[in-house]
Predict the 3D structure of the following.
Amino acid sequence: MHRGLPWIHGVCWVVALGLLASSASIDTAAAKPEPTPFESAHPALRSSLQRIAAGSRLWRDAMGLLDGTGRRAVLVTPDQVRVQDRGEGGRRRGFDPGVVAEVAPVPTEDSRVQEVLVVVNLPLLQRAYHERPNASYDEWTRDLDRIVIHEVYGHAVPYLVAGSLSGRCPDPMPGQAAEDACAIRRENAVREELGLGRRLDAGLAGLALIGRDSSARWGQRLH
Ligand SMILES: [Zn+2]
């Protein structure tokens, strides 16, 4: 659930709309509390963050490591970002509607990382939920939590703890067992604390709602 790092591969950037302005206002407002390590303006994403924090000691430990550093992961929805092709006059386009989720560290010029964007494709998840007459709300929240755990704890936290691009924690390489990959090992540790099952593959099979569909329907685009 993490498309490599688009800008490392030189293909594109993921840029946030309006987030810089909100960051600036937080930075300059002395009365406001320090930003928390994981933030979202979206109620469904905020609820997911709260559920995971309530049930996972590993997650809370990660928050503790980041407390006071000012480093943070910001969870957004696809309508809040644009993907820009690199190079002069790179084309700007919307987030790929078939991608379930993706992370994009926001590096400074010297490769330090203070912020990681986590894009979660809630419209796609909501569609999967509504198209299944028998799907329960519990299944929806558990799938959402699995995705948030993978992106935040699997990918974003290692960047933020390192404070630089050296923290990259990748998905499985070709030929590598999924459970041996850095991001999935971390994901599974938190899933275990929350009783969310163990992820055994690099694709969608570990998700209840989307995973039951054929890969042809939803694609294999979990990054
Ligand atoms: Zn991933």
Remarks:
- The first helix runs from residue 19 to 28.
